[in-house]
Fold this sequence. Notes:
By secondary structure, this protein is α/β, with parallel strands linked by helices. Helix content is 34%, strand content 24%.
Amino acid sequence: MTPGWQFWIDRGGTFTDVIGVSPTGQLHVRKILSQLGGAQDPGIRGARDILSSSEAPVHAVKVGTTVATNALLERTGEPVLLVTTKGFADGLRIGYQNRPDIFARHIVLSDRLYASVIETSERIDSVGVTLTPLDTQALRADLQKARETGVRTVAIVLMHGWMFPQHEREAASIARSLGFEEVSVSHELSPLVRYVARGDTTVLNAYLALPLRHYVSGLQRELHKLDPRARLELMQSNGGLAAADSFHAMSSVLSGPAGGLG
C-alpha cells in the first residue's frame, strides 16, 4: 500500500491552520482565512494547496474546530424545545442556585439555551416504579404544534430517565416520527443521576447539533472530493479523537482549544 498524507487542521473563527505530513515525513504548513465564501471548507482548501504537486493519497485528516464554541459564545445555535417531567419546567433554570457573591442582592442568571418547554405527564420513581404513565397522546399533540411553528430541535430530559429510560425512549420515538431534525435524549448522551447536570448537557447538545452537523457534513463532502478513501477524525473537548458519525455536539465545545494544545 502506498503511504499517504496526514493532515492536522485547527479551524478557528478567523483563521484555519493546516499542517500536512507527506508520506516521506516532511511538514507543510498553511494558514487560511476561515470565511472563504461559498461552501468551500478552509481546511480542505489548505490541504488541497499542499497537495497541488503530489499524487500520493490522503490517509487521514484530523480536525479541531471552534464552530461549536463560537456558536455557544455568540448564541447562534438552534432554538431548543425542552421536554421534561410535569412540574419541572423551571428545574434547569433554577439549577443549583450557586451564589458566587454570597451577599449580592441582585442575582443575574445566565441566558438559558432552550427557547420553550413542554411539561409532559409522566413519572417514574427512583427505584423504577411507574407512578404516572407517559401521556403519549398529549405529548404527540404538543410536539406536533411545536413542529408546525418551525421548531427543529428537541431535548428530552425526564426525572430518573438516566436509570429508567423507557419514557424517554417513547418520547424520543414520537419526536422523531414527527420529523424533528435533532432529538437529544438525556440517557443516550449523559446518563447522570443529577437532573440539572444531565439536563444542561442534553440541552447544550441539542442547541449545537444542527450547526455542527452542517459543518461536519460539508467537511465530509469536501474531503470525499479530495480523496474518498481518507479517514476523518474530529477532536473532542477531552483531547480524544472521534469518527464523524460518533462525534456529538456536546463533546465539541472545547474541540478547537484541545486541538490547538495538541
